[in-house]
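Why should sequence recovery work at all? Because a backbone constrains its sequence more than one might expect. Tight turns favour small or flexible residues, buried strands favour hydrophobic ones, and helices have their own preferences. The token representation captures these environments compactly. In the example below, the structure is given first.
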């Protein structure tokens, strides 16, 4: 049973199997894990019963004084729901019993609070029918032995869900990110990083799972920074990595240039001991041109009109005000009017400051190609 519970920790879809196993182990007629808050509820239950998680039942739970007392009991403590206060007779005089529990033959019940967070609480509930014996002390002791594993499995599941959510956010960052080991082998990378490697003019490449710079000198420097960031020094301060621009050949203006920031990230562990340190490489492009979708991006981000967004895009791509006016077939005077409006909306005061702002807020070039 404990094994089933920990399997569910790593696969949320298997909690129904665990709840069913608990029902069978304790000889119940039905069991469930319920999340309840003041307005809604849902459950993983051995019995498909949509009405039992309806707003009417939720409201009945909120009105029931015994449920209120039960919700305040310590997490991990097994209790008999009918004996929380006033004895069983007190519970069976209530609306919750008369209208909802009794029609479902839920005469005897054990429960345990599993989690309380943000106004909601989660609890495990198991019941037996009228023709079954009431739960006894042995049943309470058995469930009490299992509950710590349920609590631990819940913690593991939440951490995994948080990690998954973080990975999703990581994949949508507007710049390239590589997670690598000390041999520059990629452990993980986001979509923007993949798009960078796929570009034919990229100064970075992927060879047999290893990220490398195309220029020999840059490749050697990148290797040095990664080795420094991934160093394990017997408890001493690790390396700090560093920053470089690739390619380092400044004479070639036609090449895409990237800024690589290399930093220590995390110690990978095996059997509780550090096995290797990983590093992160964050990559941004030194833009000489505006990426696809830039005009629409700044229009939405800065609340610009279509004409203002076209001017902002032209200026960000390195054109002068006169060139931008000619490109849009308008006068320089009109361009200046648009520019003043852009200054007001972006709280900038001069063209160079505006261009710096536009470049720093632009989406990553090449993403999604």
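From this structural description, the recovered sequence reads:
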């Amino acid at each position: 049973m404990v094994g089933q519970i920990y399997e569910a920790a790593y696969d949320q879809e298997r909690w129904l199997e665990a709840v069913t196993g608990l029902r069978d182990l304790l000889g119940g007629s039905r069991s469930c894990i319920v999340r309840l808050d003041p307005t809604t509820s849902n459950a993983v239950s051995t019995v498909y019963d949509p009405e039992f998680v309806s707003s009417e039942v939720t409201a009945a739970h909120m009105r029931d004084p015994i449920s209120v007392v039960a919700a305040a009991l310590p997490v991990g403590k097994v209790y008999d729901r009918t004996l929380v206060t006033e004895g069983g007779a007190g519970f069976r005089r209530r609306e919750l019993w008369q209208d909802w529990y009794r029609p479902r033959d839920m005469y005897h019940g054990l429960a345990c609070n599993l989690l309380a967070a943000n106004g909601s609480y989660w609890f495990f509930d198991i019941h037996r029918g009228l023709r079954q014996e009431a739960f006894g002390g042995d049943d309470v002791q058995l469930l009490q032995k299992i509950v710590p594993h349920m609590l631990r499995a819940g913690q593991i599941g939440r951490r995994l869900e948080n990690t998954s959510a973080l990975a999703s956010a990581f994949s949508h960052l507007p710049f390239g990110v590589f997670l690598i080991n000390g041999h520059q082998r990629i452990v993980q990378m986001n979509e923007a990083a993949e798009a960078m490697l796929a570009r034919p003019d990229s100064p970075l490449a992927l060879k047999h799972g290893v990220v490398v710079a195309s220029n020999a000198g840059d490749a050697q420097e990148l290797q040095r920074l990664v080795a420094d960031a991934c160093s394990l020094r017997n408890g001493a301060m690790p390396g700090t990595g560093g920053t470089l621009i690739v390619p380092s050949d400044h004479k070639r203006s036609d090449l895409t240039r990237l800024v690589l920031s290399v930093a220590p990230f995390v110690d990978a562990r095996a059997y509780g001991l550090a096995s290797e340190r990983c590093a992160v490489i964050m990559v941004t492009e030194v833009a000489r041109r505006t990426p696809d979708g830039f005009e629409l991006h700044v229009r939405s981000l800065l609340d610009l009109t279509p004409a203002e967004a076209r001017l902002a895009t032209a200026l960000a791509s390195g054109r002068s005000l006169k060139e931008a006016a000619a490109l849009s077939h308008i006068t320089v005077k009109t361009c200046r009017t648009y520019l003043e409006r852009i200054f007001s909306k972006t709280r900038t005061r001069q063209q160079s400051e505006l261009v710096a702002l536009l470049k720093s807020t632009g989406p990553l070039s090449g993403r999604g190609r």
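A few observations help interpret the result. The longest helix spans residues 137-171.
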